[in-house]
Amino acid sequence: MPEVRVIGDDGAQLGVMTSSEGVRLAREQGLDLVEVSPTVSPPVCRIMDYSRYKYEQSKKERLAKKKQHAARLKEIKFRPNIDEHDYRVKLSQIRKFLTKKDKTKITLMFRGREMAHLDLGRKVLDRVAQDTSDVGIVERMPFLEGRFMTMVVMPKA
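Above: the chain sequence. Below: its structure as tokens.
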């Protein structure tokens, strides 16, 4: 029978013994013998309640996952001749995204003759960058892709 080093459930060293003797000790206490470090010689085993250990591990993982925040990319669409009230509503939405630590992609759509006035669209995006400067940083400056001018704003650290 292979010999193992046994540690009690209170952390005390119980010494080197056969694995069957370690299992017997664990059963007497109503617990399990769990191999903790198999690579050392002799392998280290611990007397513990394995199901409770697994439960606590999963609880720690859930708590760690709960505190994580995956940065998502939200998108808001504008038009070059946007009205003041509509602008304010969309700006408040952008600010809300940035305070929740989400990146925001601001897309300005041009239609028909609006393509002749790209400077108006650029002014709208510059105004958005100026109005969100306290909660966000422009990650990607405005650039034109076909009929869309796009800018990405990321939250401040």
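Residues 3-67 form a domain with the Ubiquitin-like (UB roll) fold (CATH 3.10.20.80).
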